[in-house]
TrEMBL record:
Family annotation (InterPro entries): Znf_FLYWCH
Keywords: Metal-binding, Zinc, Zinc-finger
Residues covered by the FLYWCH-type domain: 7-67
Molecular function in Gene Ontology: zinc ion binding
Keyword field contains Zinc: yes
Family matches, as Pfam families: FLYWCH
Source species, domain of life: Eukaryota
Source organism per UniProt: Galendromus occidentalis (western predatory mite)
Protein name as catalogued: Uncharacterized protein LOC108864036
Length: 426
């Protein structure tokens, strides 16, 4: 006998749909059959109808009693659709309107006439999602603290491979923290799986813990190179921390001088000391703390000037050879990891949210990877890689022109020329 499950109550309990009626669980018979009672038992005229199903398939084996309520097939369909919407809103991050439209694709006219208004269904979706994501109760003691999976934070570490300007992700890692133990373990796993191609590549935007782990796990010839995009982002953050962002956005000359600090990344490493010395006097006084920050992190604070005129500096957090883009610009290599940022944006678009749960993240990765597989096959079949936008191509050409005539420009002119060709809006 035909039966339908997949309908749930407000408390999440399973219901059975049969012959236009809805049943709720009653008890299990000694024979192993599941007994169901008509859900209208508490109606003015109690319904005595029962249904008995197999435990495994929910197939109705027999019924007993006579329904005191008339069959309502449209009401059953409404309950099915509502349950489907509730289930989908837990499994996906779709907008309420998209959930509703998808669930109503096969609905009949009679069913549509019985459905609640779209606004009411949208509120139902939001209430259901809020209830599912509600914070747990306060723990009684530190020993009783259990952090649910949805509240655990992971950092996404993506390994990208480049072949003939075709860049695709080859590995994803979720790091629960940035401790050296976790990061070192992750780097060892990557080295085992990707030792061949990765040992000849360089890393962009690596944090301190990952830098240490890569040096320990990969061959000495592995090059670690920073990303100009993130260097600019750090300078921008420092400008904001100094309370200067409003002035930066409203004063063109001030903004140009702020970008000249980031432009130090294009200076030949052997000329950095002279460039910093010449830049400092032309900067507004308010930007000196930003320049000091750059020295501390990227060059090393000056200790003393030696007798031969050279500068003795402290060891910086990030060595010059890692973040300098002077030689990379001359060699036509990438200065930024914008392709990585684009990969991250594609992930966010797929998820629809900034911080998905672990399960939504894995499901999203599977979908995104299909698109990357298509990109790889297009490359294998001879397809052209994505092209840069014209404005970025022209900016690269202008920057290369400035770098190539570096020896003919004073340091301040050189920095100003570079600063004209990028914005600090990262």
């Amino acid at each position: 006998m035909e039966s339908t499950s997949g309908v749930t109550s407000q408390r999440g309990q399973e219901k059975l749909a049969h012959d236009g009626h809805l049943f709720v669980k009653a008890y299990v018979l000694k024979s192993g059959l599941q007994s169901w009672r008509c859900m209208y038992k508490t109606a003015p005229i109690p319904c005595k109808a029962r249904a008995y199903t197999l435990m495994s398939t929910r197939e109705v084996i027999r019924t007993s009693g006579i329904h005191s309520d008339p069959p309502d097939p449209s009401g059953v369909e409404v309950a099915k659709i509502t349950s489907t919407i509730k289930r989908r809103c837990e499994e996906t991050s779709e907008a309420p309107s998209s959930l509703i439209n998808t669930a109503l694709v096969t609905a009949t006219t009679a069913t549509l006439g019985r459905m609640n208004r779209p606004q009411s269904i949208s509120r139902l979706i939001n209430r259901h999602r809020n209830a599912r994501s509600a914070a747990p109760s306060n723990p009684d003691s530190r020993g009783s603290i259990v952090i649910p999976e949805a509240y655990r934070i992971y950092e996404v570490f993506v390994v990208l491979a480049e072949r003939a300007q075709c860049v695709v992700p080859v590995a994803y890692a979720l790091l629960p923290d940035q401790s050296s133990r976790i990061v070192h373990s992750d780097a060892e796993s990557l080295e085992r799986g990707l030792a061949g191609p990765l040992s000849r590549q360089r890393g962009h935007g690596l944090r301190a813990a990952m830098m240490i782990a890569v040096r320990a796990c990969f061959p000495p010839e592995t090059r670690i190179q920073g990303c100009f995009f993130h260097l600019v982002k750090n300078i921008k953050l420092r400008v904001a921390q100094e309370g200067l962002w409003s002035r930066y956005t409203n004063d063109d000359d001030f903004a140009l001088k702020a970008r000249m600090i980031a432009a130090l990344a294009f200076v030949p490493p052997s000329e950095l000391d002279n460039a910093v010395a010449e830049l400092s006097p032309v900067l507004p006084e308010e930007l000196i703390p930003v320049l000091n920050y750059f020295e501390d992190i990227y060059i090393g604070r000056m200790n003393r000037i030696r007798a031969d005129g050279t500068v003795d500096r402290r060891t910086p957090q990030f060595p010059v050879e890692m973040w300098s883009v002077y030689q990379r610009t001359l060699d036509g290599e990438a200065r930024t990891n914008n392709y990585a940022e684009a990969a991250h944006r594609r992930l966010q678009v797929e998820f629809g949210i900034q911080h998905p749960t672990i399960w939504k993240f894995i499901d999203g990765l599977k979908k995104v990877q299909k698109g990357r597989d298509l990109q790889v096959e297009s490359f294998v079949a001879g397809g052209a890689p994505p092209t840069k936008r014209t404005k970025y191509v022209r900016a690269d050409e202008r920057i290369l022109g400035v770098v190539e005539r570096a020896e003919h420009l004073q340091h301040v002119e050189y920095l100003r020329g570079i600063a004209h060709n990028f914005l600090m809006d990262a």
